Amino acid sequence: MFPFTRNYFRYQYQTLIKRSPWTTKRGILVLAFIWCLPICYMISKKEELTTHLIRKRFDCRYIFTAPEATTTLNTVIRKNFTIPPQNMANISKNPQRSVIFLKTHKTGSSTVTNIMQRYSKSNKLNVVLPQCEHRFCYPEKFDEKLLFLHTKDKIYNMLFNHAVFHKEKMLKIMGPGTKIITIIREPYSQFDSAVQYLNFKKFFNLSGSMPLLDEFFKIPEEPLKSFLQSVNLLEGEGSFALAKNPNAFDLGFDVWNETPEYINKVLHSISQDFHLVMIMEYMEESLVLLKNELNWELEDVVFFVHNARKFKDKNTNDINGATKKVLNWNKLDAAIYKHFNETFWVKIKTSPPEFYTDVKTLREWNLSLVNHCTLYKTTDVSNILIKKYSKKSRAYLCTDILKEDIPFTTWFKMMRQFNSRSFFSNKW
């Protein structure tokens, strides 16, 4: 007769409950351990397992697209992923590992921040982290007291979260030879984006009876100026701080001083302090300049666009008139953009001869990653990029390249907390 009958199980159950509490608990612990094994395995593979969810929510419309890869793409791959001979000049240069990226608002800075975050993760660099979620308690001026789990005399490699620029205080906590980078945007398109993103309608009590920019500039200038100069800038979720010359504010300047003398002083100060000012409208060119400035690899600056508007409101009925009003209202920002848009192209002219080849290759690699990470279409390029990133960071490139600023900052904070309590050395 087959032994596992109903009576057999009933007997086993009665025997189990008669056992000592310790024996029963020990059995439960063993079962719990066995049950947890597959869960632990899933956690270890969490980045791969969540990728399909990220793919579904990602919208390819906001990628800087490029033409389809040409027949010479395999040659490009071999060229860019081949280790150069030891006697070549570029082998003697070390990649820059100490960088301040001054993150400005509505300028494509979240896209660049993701590059900095991935590079920091891959190379296990020490990152300056903010106490206040993903910003250094913005719009407060940068200060050591705003740092997360900071100890006196601690030195960092990377700073890239939103902060109001203060050169001396920032360099005090950074390693030697730190390079300072930022990005700006054409003033009208930046302000047009800001009034929507920062909810000017709510914080400036606009009725919504006309487009946002048109109604905002209906406010008389003197009362508006008086209000913005007297209001607490910590209120309004950044809208009051960024309502006038937003780039100049983030760069740490007096947004109300627009005299020719002060504008020249501002331009000179930025030229002296910043090693590179990127331009959002030319993202690929900017990132190749960044790669050259920091002596990074082209694979380090592949990107997806982050924090772009999914829906663009019509903010004016007269774009020419609104453009003139924005440029007149933000004279300091207009002067900054004009000057550094000119120096940007001077930098390109003095770049190595392979500059535009790198720009073309970067576009092709970005397209390959879009297809791989969102459409499941793998290519030789995407496979190589993903394998190289995985080898350095032990993470999945598609997951990290799509990760938004706040989750990535949270990840760095969790690693900092874990390592601060760990017996082992702190690499974060």
Automatic annotation (TrEMBL):
High-level lineage: Eukaryota, Metazoa, Cnidaria, Hydrozoa, Hydroidolina
UniProt membrane topology term: Single-pass type II membrane protein
Keyword Membrane attached: yes
Matching InterPro entries: Gal-3-0_sulfotransfrase (IPR009729), P-loop_NTPase (IPR027417)
Claim: Hydrolase is one of the keywords in the record: no
Main location: Golgi
Similarity comment text for this entry: Belongs to the galactose-3-O-sulfotransferase family.
Compartments, record wording: Golgi apparatus membrane
The protein's name: Galactose-3-O-sulfotransferase 3 isoform X2
Keywords attached to this entry: Glycoprotein, Golgi apparatus, Membrane, Signal-anchor, Transferase, Transmembrane, Transmembrane helix
Name of a matching Pfam family: Gal-3-0_sulfotr
Residues that span the membrane, as ranges: 27-44
PANTHER family xrefs: GALACTOSE-3-O-SULFOTRANSFERASE (PTHR14647), GALACTOSYLCERAMIDE SULFOTRANSFERASE-LIKE (PTHR14647:SF85)
Annotated organism of origin: Hydra vulgaris (Hydra)
